C-alpha cells in the first residue's frame, strides 16, 4: 500500500556548495569544502550527500557552486553519479537567501516541493519521513533539527555543590538548524533576491506558524564538517559504524 503522502515527497534537491571553508584549511586551499574527502572513504562530502539523496528518492540535484567551482564541476563530470546533476555558479555574491533562490530557479519542477542541504553536512536519516512531517504540518519550510555534542566533558552537581558525575561530550539541550530542509513550491518566491533568508524569510514564516522543525531521529548520524577536527571525528565514527 502506498503511503498517503508519497506523492508529495520531493524528487529534486539543491546542494549549497559555494562556501570558502576557511576553517578547514589547508584542505580547502585547492578545493571547495564539499570536495574535501572523508578520510578512509575515498569520497568527498558531496559524493556521500548525492548517494544519500538518491537513496531517499531524489532524481535531480542542482549544485550551487562558488569558491573554486571548477574543481567541483570537474569532479561531477567524471564521477559515476546516482542522480542527474546540474551546477549553477553565482557571478556575484547573492548571500545565502539569494543564492538559494538563484539555484532553485534551475530546478526541473518549480511547481513541486524540494529538499535543500548545506554542502558540508554529513548525515543519514529518513528524508521521506521528514517530507511527510512537512506535509502533515502544512508547512512552507521545514528544518531538520540536531542536538550536537558539546566538545567538552560536562559536570553534574547536586544541590549542595558536590560533583556527582562526569559526562564525556554530552548532547546539548538545545536543538540547532541541522542544514537540511524541505521546501514547498511557494518557498522560492519568498526568498530575497540577495541577502540572508535566515534573517528574513524564516522569521516571517515562523510568525505565521508555517515553519516546522523536524528532530533528526535519535541515533541517526549527523555531523557538520567545519574544521579539520570534524574530519578526523567523522572518520573515527564511520570506522565504529563499520561503513
From TrEMBL:
The record's keywords, sorted A to Z, are:
Transferase
Residues forming the Nucleotidyl transferase domain are: 13-239
Q: Which Pfam family, just one, is annotated for this protein? A: NTP_transferase
| Gene3D superfamilies cross-referenced by the UniProt entry | Spore Coat Polysaccharide Biosynthesis Protein SpsA, Chain A (3.90.550.10)
Gene Ontology MF annotations: transferase activity
Record keyword NADP present: no
Name the record gives this protein: Guanyltransferase
Amino acid at each position: 500500500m502506498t503511503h498517503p503522502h508519497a506523492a508529495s515527497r520531493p524528487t529534486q534537491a539543491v546542494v549549497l556548495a559555494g562556501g570558502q571553508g576557511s576553517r578547514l584549511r589547508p584542505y580547502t586551499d585547492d578545493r571547495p569544502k564539499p570536495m574535501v574527502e572523508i578520510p578512509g572513504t575515498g569520497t568527498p562530502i558531496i559524493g556521500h550527500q548525492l548517494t544519500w539523496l538518491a537513496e531517499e528518492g531524489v532524481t535531480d540535484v542542482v549544485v550551487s557552486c562558488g569558491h573554486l567551482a571548477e574543481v567541483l564541476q570537474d569532479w561531477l563530470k567524471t564521477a559515476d553519479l546516482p542522480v542527474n546533476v546540474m551546477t549553477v555558479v553565482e557571478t556575484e555574491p547573492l548571500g545565502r537567501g539569494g543564492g538559494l533562490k538563484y539555484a532553485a530557479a534551475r530546478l526541473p519542477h518549480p511547481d513541486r516541493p524540494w529538499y535543500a542541504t548545506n554542502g558540508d553536512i554529513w548525515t543519514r536519516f529518513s528524508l521521506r519521513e521528514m517530507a511527510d512531517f512537512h506535509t502533515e504540518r502544512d508547512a512552507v519550510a521545514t528544518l531538520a533539527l540536531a542536538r550536537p555534542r558539546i566538545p567538552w566533558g560536562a559536570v553534574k552537581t547536586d544541590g549542595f555543590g558536590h560533583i556527582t558525575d562526569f559526562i564525556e561530550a554530552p548532547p546539548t539541550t538545545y536543538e540547532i538548524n541541522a542544514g537540511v530542509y524541505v521546501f514547498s513550491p511557494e518557498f522560492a518566491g519568498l526568498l530575497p533576491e540577495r541577502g540572508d533568508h535566515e534573517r528574513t524569510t524564516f522569521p516571517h514564516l515562523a510568525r505565521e506558524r508555517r515553519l516546522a522543525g523536524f528532530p533528526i531521529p535519535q541515533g541517526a548520524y549527523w555531523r557538520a564538517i567545519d574544521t579539520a577536527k570534524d574530519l578526523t571525528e567523522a572518520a573515527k565514527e564511520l570506522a565504529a559504524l563499520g561503513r
